[in-house]
Specification:
This protein has 191 residues and is an alpha/beta fold. The protein contains five helices and seven strands. The chain has helices spanning 35-44, 65-81, 106-115, 129-138, 165-174, and strands at 4-7, 48-54, 88-92, 123-126, 141-145, 160-162, 185-186. The chain has a seven-stranded parallel sheet, sandwiched between helices. The longest helix is centred in the middle third of the chain and has 17 residues, at 65-81.
Length: 191
């Protein structure tokens, strides 16, 4: 069994589209600072890396599925070329009511089955309550990225709070065991 880090896409790896819009082409996908190096550090530490992303723009017919496949193909190639390969991108294209759309843990459970992942030794890094809930339901430890959270959010207690992915990676790599119940580790400038 291997340990993994499941990354949300929009807001963790790349800039989010404006509210109500979707990233529909590769030129609209702008990586956030430090993400390539952060993923490389996780890989060097022995983690298998996945992206698990809700993409309801497909269900709403605002994003062409073929364009999304091209975006993800280019994204995988970019990370691989940087020495930070991502094993697979799991996508939920549905609007609601399925087992794969976060906060449901379907994408994480599927990855665990397909790639022999120990979910209790794994992490979910996201910027929303649904990411944290999916991680908790799958039995993973969780890291909340605060830099992209807009407004007050009721959220299940994450294990780690960080300002961005590089900060979260530093904290994950510094955490050797499950934190004591109720204890949250925070990174630089996390609130």
């Amino acid at each position: 069994m291997r340990r993994a880090v499941f990354l949300d896409r929009d807001g963790v790896i790349n800039r989010k589209a404006p509210e109500g819009e979707y990233i529909a082409s590769r030129r609209e996908l702008i990586l956030l600072p430090g993400v390539l190096g952060a993923v490389r550090h996780l890989r060097d530490a022995g983690f298998v890396i996945f992206i698990a992303t809700n993409q309801r723009g497909i269900a709403r017919r605002r994003v062409n599925p073929e364009d999304l496949d091209n975006i993800h193909h280019d994204l995988l190639e970019l990370f691989s070329d940087a020495g930070a390969p991502i094993t697979k991108i799991y996508v939920c294209p549905h609007e609601n009511g399925c087992e794969c759309r976060k906060p449901a843990p379907g994408m994480l459970l599927r990855a665990a089955k397909e790639h022999s992942i120990d979910l209790q030794a794994s992490w979910v890094v996201g910027d929303s309550a649904t990411d944290i809930q999916a991680g908790k339901q799958a039995g993973c430890r969780t890291a909340l990225i605060h830099s992209t959270v807009v407004g007050p959010v009721e959220i299940e207690q994450p294990d780690i709070e960080a300002i961005d992915l590089p900060d979260a990676v530093t904290l994950i790599l510094g955490t050797e065991a499950v934190l004591p119940e109720g204890k949250v580790q925070t990174g630089r400038n996390a609130s």
